[in-house]
Write a structure and sequence with these properties.
Elements (H helix, E strand, L loop, with lengths): L15 H8 L16 E5 L2 E4 L4 E4 L2 H4 L8 H14 L10 H13 L4 E7 L2 H18 L7 E5 L8 H6 L3 H4 L9 E4 L9 H4 L2 H19 L4 E6 L15 H12 L2 E5 L13 H5 L5 E4 L11 E6 H4 L19 H17 L1 H17 L7 E7 L2 E6 L11 H18 L2 E2 L1 E3 L5 E4 L7 H20 L2
Parallel strand pairs: 3-13, 5-6, 5-7, 7-8, 8-9
Antiparallel strand pairs: 1-2, 2-3, 4-10, 9-10, 11-12, 12-15, 14-15
The chain binds pyridoxal-5'-phosphate.
Length: 463
């Protein structure tokens, strides 16, 4: 066979959707008769376009990723320039200029003594790396029993088997049990569904929720617990911001029990809440930050675990190694793109834009409160969840059957058909997740509100 006569044709014809259905295995996707995924071919600013040329408002920044918006030529140029200079070299005992510069820059943005940057290719690997570091660190400082981790109910922390064990969504884990042992759950900060005596007092609720972490550490034995993994604003379940005083108390608890506080900022970092790192938005200093998504605005994949100097100390004796890494971790092209992306953040004042416009985003979405299907509108910065309920006065949620019919069967595609890309999610109670690119303004907020209003009004009639 000559190189010009491949054994299988490149494609068998038909639409891109049909070709996708034939060979592409979607992530977290259903497959089967009649299911063809929408095909997105182009992006420009806050908009994406499909293969039929239809335009949609990107209400989720891809997947909480495209902070600076789509179609930025300068990021494509930064990638090309680095690929021409040095497309690839690993960080396995070597270094590259863009990885060095990006590590310096992230350390400068990070609070406290979080000065040591370990690169990955994405968020789940950053979480995985943080747990492994926590285990090895405690072995090296003479506390080898400390290996367990604590995280919150319904929280999503990624899909590698360690990160998945930290994830608090049973339905995502069932198929892969047994997972890495040693991960335990505490309640999240969903005040909308808090017990009656706590729901009207956010401070009291925050104290209660934080104290559950101390309780879990006591239950497991402080000498066995290594780390607590928390998002600044929890995504899965529908955007749970921390109540006042929550992180202050968590920090106290972690210090008291010598347990590492890992701020999982895979979604919240890089301006989503208004600062480079969202721990700054909520006034706490973690021991480790995990981040990814917005670091390059998605123009190339990368993630990072940023550790406090103290955690790196036992690894600087000349012989001790963190025996962990990824071929593509800190890829030079991705690191160069991240630097160019962060330049855009600085030049265009994106974080200030988010801080300035966040109240308008909130009040625009809160207009939806008048709809009977909207139970709660919650979030921070450019990161919101709208919880849908069957009965607003009792907060009654949908049955599994109604969720399937309304959320999956109607809402997801109806919103998309109406020109809004976002997510209807039911990992906890059903919510619509919104996180537009950080360049969005009032015009986009209004468009989101109008599309949601019309589609949610129709959804209610299907109940
Ligand atoms: C908080 C959090 N941690 C970890 C992850 C996993 O990141 P990735 O999909 O890049 O592996 C995600 C993904 O959405 C996330 O939201």
């Amino acid at each position: 066979m000559t190189p010009n006569t491949p054994s299988t044709p490149r494609h068998s014809g038909g639409s891109l959707g049909a070709r996708s259905a034939a060979h592409l295995w979607g992530h977290f996707a259903r497959h089967g008769e009649g299911i063809t995924p929408p095909v997105i071919t182009r992006g420009e600013g806050v908009r994406i376009f499909d293969d039929a040329g239809r335009s949609y408002l990107d209400g989720l920044a891809g997947l909480f990723v495209v902070q600076v918006g789509h179609g930025r030529e300068e990021l494509a140029r930064a990638a090309a320039k680095q690929a021409e200079q040095l497309a690839f070299f690993p960080l396995w005992s070597y270094a590259t200029p863009p990885a060095i510069e990006l590590a310096e820059r992230l350390a400068a943005y990070a609070p406290g003594d979080l000065n040591r940057v370990f690169f990955t290719t994405g968020g789940g690997e950053a979480v995985e790396s943080a747990w492994k570091l926590a285990k090895q660190y405690f072995k090296l400082v003479g506390k080898p029993g400390k290996h367990k981790v604590i995280s919150r109910a319904v929280a999503y922390h990624g899909t590698p088997q360690g990160a998945l064990a930290i994830t608090g969504v049973p339905a995502l884990k069932e198929a892969f049990e047994p997972l890495t042992p040693g991960a335990f759950r505490v309640p999240n900060t969903n005040i909308y569904r808090a017990a009656e005596d706590l729901a009207d007092d956010p401070k009291k609720f925050g104290r209660w929720a934080a104290d559950r972490i101390a309780e879990a550490i006591e239950f497991e034995g402080p000498e066995t617990v290594a780390a607590v993994f928390l998002e600044p604003v929890q995504n899965a379940g529908g955007c749970f911001p921390p109540p006042p005083g929550y992180f202050e108390r968590v920090r106290e608890i972690c210090d008291e029990y010598d347990v590492l506080l890992v701020s999982d900022e895979v979604i919240c970092a890089f301006g989503r809440i208004g600062s480079m790192f969202a721990c700054d938005d909520f006034g706490y200093v973690p021991d480790i930050i995990t981040c990814a998504k917005g670091m390059t605005s998605g123009y190339s994949p990368i993630g990072a675990m940023i550790a406090d100097d103290r955690l790196f100390e036992p690894f600087r004796d000349g012989t001790t190694t963190f025996a962990h890494g990824y071929t593509f971790g800190g890829h030079p092209v991705s690191a160069a793109v991240a630097l160019a992306n962060l330049d855009i953040f600085e030049r265009e004042g994106l974080n200030d834009h988010v801080k300035t416009m966040a109240p308008a985003f909130r009040s625009t979405l809160e207009r939806l409160d008048d709809l009977p299907i909207v139970g709660d509108v919650r979030g921070e910065g450019f990161f919101y969840g709208i919880e849908l309920v069957k009965d607003k006065s009792t907060k009654e949620t949908f049955t599994a059957d109604e969720s399937e019919r309304i959320l999956r069967g109607f809402l997801s595609s109806a919103l998309f058909d109406a020109g809004l890309y976002c997510r209807a999610d039911d990992r906890g109670d059903p919510v619509i997740q919104l996180a537009p690119p950080l360049i969005a303004g009032q015009a986009e907020f209004d468009e989101i509100e109008q599309i949601l209003r019309s589609v949610l009004t129709e959804a209610y009639t299907l109940l």
